[in-house]
Amino acid sequence: MKFTRGEAASLAFTYFTAGLAVSVLHVTQGTDPVVVIAAALIVNSATSTLAFAAVTASGGSILAGVFSGWLVATRFGLFAAALGPRLWPERWKRAIAAHLAFDPSVALGIREDDDADARSVFVQAGLWLCVPWWIAAVLGSTVADQLGDTRTLGLDAVLPAMLIAIIFPQLRSRLGATIAVIAAALALALVEFTPGGIPVLIAGTASLLALRARPAIEVGV
Amino acid sequence: MLTWTVVGLLAIGVYGQRALGAVLLDTDRLEEHWQGVLRSIPLAIIVAVVALQTFTSSQAFSFDARAIGVGAAALCAWRRLPMLVTVLVAAAVTAAVRQL
């Protein structure tokens, strides 16, 4: 399965709308628009800046906010570890490309059997989501006042919908479906009792089920 | 509210984890079974992210229009409709249910 124009358009649309919503939120909470744009470019993780904003808005300290921001980004480290070895033998190239490690870019890359395809799909998908996301951050933080509530357009459903479309092929295998059910159950069971980021990390341990699988029915192929 | 200091700290922590993950491993040193685990990590984590984004808000359970929109998207993905259709259906269904 190669990277298609439809997938490129979906990534661009999803991350453009997410970028608008996130930057509007930060600006309306009092962040300088220039800082919002810088955050989009160099932090490159909406979940991290949103986690920081949520913790500090509910009375948490700056340090607690920063720590939550790091914690919710641990998944990007795991994503980079999952795909990294298949990208390039040179570690400095992997380190540069790691900035593009997002949920969809890694999931699309890892679907490819061939390492060269995995690399090409990962880089293309990463750019097709990052560039619209950066443009939206610039646009959203400059015209924040004129945009209404993006939830009335249903845009809060767009990211989970796209992620489902990307992972669905893996759910068709018994092992993939089992891992998915356990991961979702773990995350939902823990969300009310643990700090942000922890439920997702613990849900990641569902991948250990792959140890029981014979290579022939390995997921992700 | 984000400040330059906060953005700097977040950037170091987030990029640090990405870069560390990317350079840490060489798959040819891993046994085949562990490679399978490595390839399943994104699946497990993404499913967890989807579950949380669909059924919770502010770390508490919530079932609203968004869950119905994402459900419609799952149906589209199951029927193998193009990803763009899936994404647009999710937004349209969520917006429509919210209007009710």
Task: Give an account of the 3D structure.
- The complex is a heterodimer of chains A (221) and B (100).
- Chain A is mostly helical and 221 residues long.
- Helix content of chain A is 67%, strand content 0%.
- Chain A folds into two domains: 5-152, no CATH class; 172-221, no CATH class.
- In chain A, helix 1 (5-28) crosses helix 2 (33-43) and helix 5 (74-83) packs parallel to helix 7.
- Chain A is globular.
- Chain A starts with a helix and ends in an 18-residue tail after the last helix.
- Helices cover 76% and strands 4% of the residues of chain B.
- Chain B has helices at 4-24, 32-55, 65-78, 83-99; strands spanning 56-57, 60-61.
- The two termini of chain B are 34 Å apart.
- The mean pLDDT of chain B is 90.
- The chains are: A mainly alpha (221), B mainly alpha (100).
- The interface between A and B is large, with 105 and 77 residues.
How are the elements arranged and paired?
The complex is a heterodimer of chains A (221) and B (100).
Chain A: H1 5-28, H2 33-43, H3 46-57, H4 62-72, H5 74-83, H6 91-97, H7 103-110, H8 115-142, H9 158-171, H10 174-190, H11 198-203
Helix pairs in contact in A: 1-2, 1-8, 2-8, 3-4, 5-7, 7-8, 7-9
Chain B: H1 4-24, H2 32-55, E1 56-57, E2 60-61, H3 65-78, H4 83-99
Helix pairs in contact in B: 3-4
